[in-house]
Amino acid sequence: MNFYINNKAQEMKKKILVVDDEINICLLLENFLSQDYEVMAIHDGEEALQWLEGNLPDLIISDIQMTKMDGFEFLTKVRERGFTKHTPFIMLSAKAESKERIKCYKLGAQDYLTKPFNPEELEEIVKKNLFPIHYSLVW
Amino acid sequence: MIPIQTKTNKVLNAATEKLYDLGMISMLCRGNNVQLKKMVMVFIDQLPKSIEEIKIAYHNREFEIVKNTAHRIKPILGYYAIIKVEKDILQIERWAAKKVSSPEMESKIDNLDKVITQIVDQLKNEFLYK
């Protein structure tokens, strides 16, 4: 019975796609989030779009400044696609300017985190986006 | 005699002073030492390459590469609490954005290189040679 429950829990893990061209950051996010979620880390936007052809994550976390395709273009393309039109999207950036945040929100990002982020803040933002009903009940 | 001893101690302290703090990284690894070691190994492998990229790009006056690489590694320095070059990396990124080439910029890049080399050595001592 326990085996069945554990297996079910494993099956029900939410899937998060992480896109960042800095390997250290990808690994950090993977380490931190993989305890509770299934994490797929990809190092550029183009490759991530290819991955999205055959996969549907519950949440996307992406850096802005990447070499092959920046986060703005990646987010725009994600929003253009039918299947990922409403997938929650969190932007990560080392820039703290409000101009950047506004641009992200206008393009359809739900949240914006400045690197280096506080792990607890990341955890709460991820939960808020993955479990919005739970969050609305709390409030 | 006393001033000489004080001076020597200061030199010794500077050489052995720990230039990073793994508190935040450890928290992000949820206290898992295997993951922590994996993170540190990636730092040891990648950071010197990024610094080399900055040095070569600056030498070739490729300021866009200097700016982008500085921007990319800036948060990593934050996660490892490397406060000694916190302002330098910001300044390098800003000056590179303005395409500034100056002895001060060169000195900041040299200092960044020196500090990262020291940190890599310290991390190797802590994780590889123990």
**Contiguous helical run count of chain A:** 7
Radius of gyration of chain A: 15 Å
CATH class of chain A: Alpha Beta
The total tally of domains of chain B equals 1
CATH topology of chain B: Four Helix Bundle (Hemerythrin (Met), subunit A)
CATH H-level superfamily title of chain B: HPT domain
Query: What share of residues of chain A is helical?
Result: 40-55%
Q: What is the averaged pLDDT score of chain B?
A: 89
Structural class of chain A: alpha/beta
**Which structural category fits the helices and strands of chain B?**
mainly alpha
Widest sheet of chain A: strand order?
Answer: 2-1-3-4-5
By oligomeric state, this entry counts as heterodimer
Distance between the amino and carboxyl termini of chain A:
35 Å
Q: Would you identify the CATH H-level superfamily of chain A?
A: Response regulator
Mean pLDDT of chain A: 89
Q: Provide the succession of SSEs of chain A.
A: HEHEHEHEHEHH
Q: Tally the helices of chain B: what do you get?
A: 6
What is the largest interface, and how many residues per chain?
A: A-B, 17 and 22 residues
Strand count, sense and barrel status of the largest sheet of chain A are:
5 strands, parallel
Label this structure with key terms.
heterodimer; A: 139 residues; alpha/beta; Rossmann fold; five-stranded parallel beta sheet; 7 helices; 17% strand; globular; disordered N terminus; B: 130 residues; mainly alpha; Four Helix Bundle (Hemerythrin (Met), subunit A); 6 helices; 78% helix
